[in-house]
């Protein structure tokens, strides 16, 4: 199996079907996550000479002999000075096979919200554990967040194998404990293509510091026959099959040129959230419930008769009906429009969320007013216990809410559709993003 | 045994719905342009005539086809421009019937509101004309071509980045950005910087330029030029202030990887005369584009973080 990379193979074909994989990393403070990310970037030749020089100089100034790869990812001065990571940082690298977008999220207890943010767009999450400590509270928390956010794939990277003499039984015990916990989460079906729990997570023994099984296979672990971390990232299936899903098309903008050449053109611009849309397909416009059919589709200037998620396109409809920003054009089984929303939420802000709070709810391209009617329970993310009727949800809390909205929303359950099932709660006073919401039950 | 390559081949060729990474990045950027069009009153695209702003404009034109783009353009003119770039800018504006605002650093120096720096660098002077241009035109959304792969502080930037009335970026006040839900709410006087190319790399930009056959100013391709060496970079000899005594002018075959103010944008030795040559060169490069070509980013490890806090691009 080749791990050739684009810097050594500049013949990387342009316009070829190199897919994009978005993934997130999570780990506790001392699990060596920054070292792993640095190692992945360094060994995939994605760190360039001037970046490495800057890290080397900074390491020497701090009296460290070897370049500290963690300094590559700690972007802000505040972080470097305090030696912490305060926010999600995005990293980019490519191999001859794939382009990667890595959401690097801090692992401190108080920063669950950053992992929620990173995981929201991820198709894979790397959860890091220290082989000496095994599965700890943080590990369970990260797995629970990945399951909650319906991340389709998880990698358990058992790090620091060099410190446990590369011993298989250590690795096997940790992998088994993690798999058992993952199974207890009732791992997502839906968007992950109905994966069984045993296929949701993949355990890989690594040493980020020594470089074992990160990019290059380890010379110390003959007992391990699986892929290196990078090989796994390169080969894990990306995306779902849009032909299996009903089409969902939130309207962003109405395009009406009113020019001599395009006098009667009226198109609805948006990005397909799921599914396939074809010319002639019968569609329902929500929340009005009016029905019509697709007259034609323009993909950024070119006429076509088919489009699929996640393409950005412009849809023309057969009938001249009232459609505007915030409406959903749906094919197949349409979601029910409702003003009563039951959802699992992750609270993101220091301002708590309480029953009676009046907020804005942003769902796809539609923003409506909403009132928090009930807080049925808070979830203890370490035990998954439900604590009924909390007074409020505090920053980093996960819980269930019942909302009443000023206008109907066409929500799919989040477990079925991560785009049409997700929303934000926003403080109407100053626009602060308060809460991330996922329609339906948590686990 | 099934190898990694077999699986990927199947993914690329047997899944009729596979999108290339360029298609995925394009779809995301177009989505961002349309969100802004739907939610803001007075958006503007920062247009320098550099490759990233040219790609932004190309994406915007595609996003609203066959209608006109519902934005105007703003160029912060340092006064030390490459003539090829200004010519390109004006031709593009005329060709697409766009509206261009120009905020000139020289005007601010002439009126005494800005002073020339001892080192002659004008990139750091752009912040005041930029903020003045935003305020006087009441722009509420400002598209920039910044990419997260460019620099460490940019790696933590949001797609929608809230700025206060001083244009300042406060990393601790950033809003979490989840899924593709962008929160553009802001108070009067505040504005939002929007970065549709956040997830693109330099190589993606060049591959996209190649795929879409986008025309660029000629200085992006290898050409003969009179240059002199300063701070390890090839700078163009010209009336803006170089060369000084002791700096020797020589004629070399170079191209520009970034296009900014002539006083601090360096050329690189190159024989890449076509877009395909440039894609190959960028893929093989061992230096980041800013490391190779920007004097102002070498000032300190936190140079970009500090300038962003002050309201820079």
Number of domains of chain B: 2
Multimeric status of the protein:
heterodimer
Task: Tally the helices of chain B.
Answer: 10
Tally of extended strands of chain A? Answer: 24
The CATH architecture term of the largest domain in chain A is 3-Layer(aba) Sandwich
Helix content of chain B: 25-40%
Q: Tell me which protein chains meet in the greatest interface and how many residues each side has.
A: A-B, 94 and 78 residues
CA-based shape of chain A: globular
Query: Strand share of the residues of chain B?
Result: 15-25%
Q: How is the largest sheet of chain A built, in terms of strand order?
A: 2-3-1-4-5-6
Neighbour order of strands in the largest sheet of chain B: 3-2-1-4-6-5
CATH superfamily of the largest domain in chain B: HUPs
CATH topology of the largest domain in chain B: Rossmann fold
Number of continuous helical runs of chain A: 8
The CATH superfamily of the largest domain in chain A is known as P-loop containing nucleotide triphosphate hydrolases
* Element-by-element helix/strand order of chain B: HHEHEHEHHEEEHEEEEHHH
Low-confidence stretches of chain A: 1-17, 189-195
> Could you name the ranges of chain B where pLDDT drops below 50 across 5 or more consecutive residues?
1-13
* Integer count of domains of chain A: 3
